[in-house]
Write a structure and sequence with these properties.
By secondary structure, the chain is mostly helical. It contains 7 helices and no strands. Helix 1 crosses helix 2, helix 2 packs across helix 4 and helix 4 crosses helix 7.
Length: 141
C-alpha cells in the first residue's frame, strides 16, 4: 500500500466509515482508519492533536497555520478539495453516506464560500463555519 492512489483510496474509505459511524458508533476498524488519517495529517502539517481536539469545543485559533493546513490535508486526502482550496461537490455526493448527506452536504456547500487567502485558510474557514452553523454536525478526525 505505498502508492498515493492507494493511500487516497484508504483515506476515502476511512472517511466514509467515519461519517457513517457518527450515527452508528465506531468499530475498532473505523477508529484505526481514522487514527491513521489523523496521524498522517498531523505529521504532514505539524499541527497538534490538542489543537485539532479543541476545535470540537469551538476553539479555532486564528493564527494557527498548522491547524489550518491540517484541515486542508484532510479534505485534500479525501480528494474533496483541490490544491487551490476549492470543494468538489461531486466528490462530496459520493463520500457522504445517505443518512448524513442532507445535513452535512448542505452545511459544506453553505460554508465553502467562507473564503480565505490560501487553501489552508479556506479549509479552516469551512470547518469553523460548519461548527458555527451546527456544532452537533461538526466533526474532524
Amino acid at each position: 500500500m505505498g502508492t498515493t492512489t492507494e493511500m487516497k483510496q484508504l483515506y476515502l474509505i476511512s472517511f466514509v466509515l467515519f461519517l457513517s459511524s457518527l450515527v452508528h458508533g465506531f468499530t475498532d476498524e473505523e477508529l484505526q482508519l481514522m487514527n491513521q488519517l489523523r496521524t498522517t495529517c498531523l505529521e504532514e502539517t505539524g499541527a497538534t492533536g490538542q489543537a485539532v481536539d479543541d476545535t470540537k469545543k469551538g476553539i479555532f485559533p486564528p493564527d494557527d497555520d498548522k491547524l489550518k493546513c491540517f484541515f486542508k490535508c484532510i479534505w485534500s486526502t479525501m480528494s474533496a478539495m483541490s490544491d487551490e482550496g476549492e470543494i468538489d461537490e461531486d466528490v462530496l455526493q459520493v463520500l457522504l453516506p445517505a443518512d448524513l448527506k442532507d445535513k452535512l452536504y448542505g452545511l459544506i456547500v453553505k460554508c465553502k464560500s467562507a473564503g480565505g487567502n490560501s487553501p489552508c485558510d479556506k479549509a479552516y474557514n469551512i470547518h469553523k463555519c460548519i461548527y458555527n452553523e451546527d456544532s452537533s454536525a461538526y466533526f474532524t478526525p
